[in-house]
Amino acid sequence: MANIKSDIEITNKVYIETYGCQMNFSDTEIVSSILINSGFSIINTPDNADTILLNTCSVRDNAERKIHERLIHLKRYKKQNKNLVVGILGCMAERLRKNLLEEKQIVDLVVGPDEFRKVPQLIDDARTGTRGIAVMLSRVETYDDIEPLRTSGVFAWLSIMRGCDNFCSYCVVPYTRGRERSRSLESVVKEVENLRDKGFKEITLLGQNVNSYKDRQTGEDFADLLAASAKAAPKIRFRYMTSHPVDMSDKLIETMAEYDNICKYIHLPVQSGSNRILDLMLRGYTVEHYLGHINKIKKLMPGCSLSTDIIAGFPTETEEDHKATLRVIEEVGYDGAFMFKYSPREHTKAFSMADDVPDREKTRRLNEIIELQHKISRELNNKETGNFHTIVAESPSKKNPEEWMGRTDTNKVVVFPVSNGIAEGDIFNVKILGSTSATLFGEIIS
Ligand code: SAH
Ligand code: SF4
Ligand code: F3S
Fold it and tell me: Which residues line ligand 2 at a C-beta cut-off of 6 Å?
């Protein structure tokens, strides 16, 4: 009997490791919730796990390489516990499908982003020796009815839509996450109210392209949703990720300006400063159109911070195109940027183009972009000295336990010394005393 009991205990502990974008982190909270509702428990280390799941990303080759390396490491766990179940979830599961089962003996289950409801069953099957796969994409699945298992009681990710219909020529996401679909405004606002009642302080609304959010029943758009959320929880700060320049609207900028509890921070990826490259990327806008949005944002929300994504070395990119990217970065004056080397992805439209910028040249261009961006971030952060910001305490600083970090409304990290008794979610007024390109240093005023 004792053995049976311990078997039951052993076979229910799941450890999930998450890679990739915020949508993936939000998905892990959904999978965790599905598992708990089926009698599993979620643990924080792989050591005593009976099941190890990797929620994966395919956006660039190095994201996938990380997972291949991780699977090699996990062999050690499987040696220690031959009943261990190992699963691949998310975008890489969707992209590589049965190849993963065929090529990786260690993998017992493969589940794409729209089939998470099947994870408990597939774990059960794997325990009896049947390796399984579920990678259908859906036009309707939004996991609307599932309350994600949130580990913080202060900061919440809230997925308002899934998938992407943009098919930028370099991007694998529409293939791994399927067609775009929005949740109803009513269900999102209900979740906001629920989080408000539980005492959450900050919510980030998530989607690959939130600006094209649409409630199909009522026709309400993302600006309507943001306004309804901000009204439903006036004490909660709202952020959102990510917006696409094509669908950026004046209405959205005006809505952001109108509500104090909508953070003054926009991540608006430009990708390239060259119209010819933007055209090849199928981004659907020109640099001039993009800068029109930026000007409007700066006019209606002076002090709003801005960030971007940049791809260096897209096929056919010349030195002139690269210089145009540097010019846009300079002209906008981004507070921050995520900068990448182009990585060809199978099945995408750009995959048929020759990857003709040599890797050394991509690296050189990327380094130039990073250097310029750091210089701009340093200058902008320098100007913060003497400013006051309201911040929500997030966690102890990694470098010094006597300091904590929190984020400004404009999404800048502030590190500040603390006295006893500080907790996640405490709200402070801080004065900025100094900075680097990545961090502001402050002191608590009140
Ligand atoms: N939906 C978001 C981005 C999702 S992917 C948006 O449209 O902004 C995040 C970023 O990864 C992209 O903005 C892009 O800069 C980068 N990226 C996507 N595919 C890539 C590829 N094949 N090579 C290099 N970078 C890529
Ligand atoms: Fe990829 Fe473009 Fe969709 Fe963003 S908008 S996820 S870059 S296809
Ligand atoms: Fe990666 Fe999938 Fe997100 S490919 S960036 S985890 S949508």
Answer: 164, 166-168, 171, 173-174, 208-209, 244
Is 4 a residue whose pLDDT tops 70? Answer: no
Residue 308 Cβ < 6 Å to ligand 1: no
Protein residue with least CA distance to atom 18, ligand 1: 171
* SS3 of residue 438 by DSSP: coil
Tens of pLDDT, residue by residue over 400-443, are 888 999 999 999 999 999 877 888 999 999 999 999 999 999 99
Sequence ranges of the chain with CATH classification 2.40.50.140:
388-445
- Asked if the 265-382 domain carries CATH number 3.40.50.800, the reply is no
- The separation between CA 335 and the C-alpha centre of its own chain, rounded to angstroms, equals 18
Q: Which CATH number fits domain 152-263: 3.40.50.620, 3.40.630.30, 3.30.750.210, 3.90.1150.10?
A: 3.30.750.210
Closest to 150 in 3D by CA, of 408, 418, 424, 428: 424
Torsion of CA 253, 255, 256, 259, to 10 degrees: 160
Residues 6 or more apart from 31 whose CB is under 8 A from it?
16, 53, 55, 89, 116, 119
The tens digit of pLDDT for each residue in 77-120 reads: 999 999 999 999 999 999 999 999 999 999 999 999 999 999 99
Looking at domain 13-134, which of 1.10.260.40, 3.40.640.10, 3.40.190.150, 3.40.50.12160 is its CATH number? 3.40.50.12160
SS3 annotation, 214-267 = ECCCCCCEHHHHHHHHHHHCCCCEEEEECCCHHHCCHHHHHHHHHCCCECCEEE
Question: Angle between the 287-300 and 319-332 helix axes, to the nearest 10 degrees?
Answer: 10
> How much distance in Å is there from the Cα of 164 to the middle of ligand 2?
6
pTM over 0.90: yes
- Residue 446's pLDDT band, with cuts at 50, 70 and 90, is confident
- CA 168 to centroid of ligand 1, rounded, Å: 9
158: helix, coil or strand?
Answer: strand
Q: Would you give the DSSP letter of residue 271?
A: B
What distance in Å separates the CA atoms of residue 205 and residue 223, rounded to the nearest whole number? 12
- pLDDT, one tens digit per residue, over 22-53 is 999 999 999 999 999 999 999 999 999 999 99
Which class would CATH give 388-445? Answer: mainly beta
Residue 173 CA to ligand 3 center (angstroms) comes to 6
